[in-house]
Description:
Radius of gyration: 17 Å
Helix content: under 10%
Number of helices: 0
Strand order of the largest sheet: 7-8-9-11-15-16
Amino acid sequence: NASSTDTLIIGSSIDYLRSLGSSLKIVDVNGDGYDDIVSGQHTSFLSTGVDRLYVIYGSKDIPLSIDLSSYEPDLLIYEEIAGSSFGYSLDSKDINHDGHEDILIGAPALSSSNRINNGAVYVVYGKNYQNKIIDAKDADVKIYGAMTGDFFGFKIIADDVNGDKGYDIIASAIATTSSVSSRVYVLYAKGLPGQAATQSGMA
């Protein structure tokens, strides 16, 4: 029965048009052995507003009730450009092999560099953040869709595709225009940059 839940997280009342929990992932971001809660709060495609991800650290003393109207999350990540559906898709793996799980974030409705809804995938490396706020434009890895209408980042998965012990990024581009075919991209971990890139190559 949900009314007898152990911990309840309540979205901010000022963000009623954005749905807390629209995407969820359990990730040990700060490497303390406790799973942390990553919750997306984003608008529907093409809507206005600022999408974000909340990270709340797990612990043996996690509060019974967390109201985001007043509670300061351990990590807050804002979208780079409004209306991008930032956080629509999520995954996590230790991409940079530092012992912390990293957060992979899809923003399939993002428009950038004169490309409408080309989409993007971001990676924010895990570490022991303390009430940190990050703008997605400052993410550790940024990968942008190559073409208008790609909706790159609609789904994302991190796994070892080529058996080199690194976690590669697999991302779909569902393509919503008749002139663009849908695709699935695989980006090997060893080629991932710390700066902006596109699917077709490094920026």
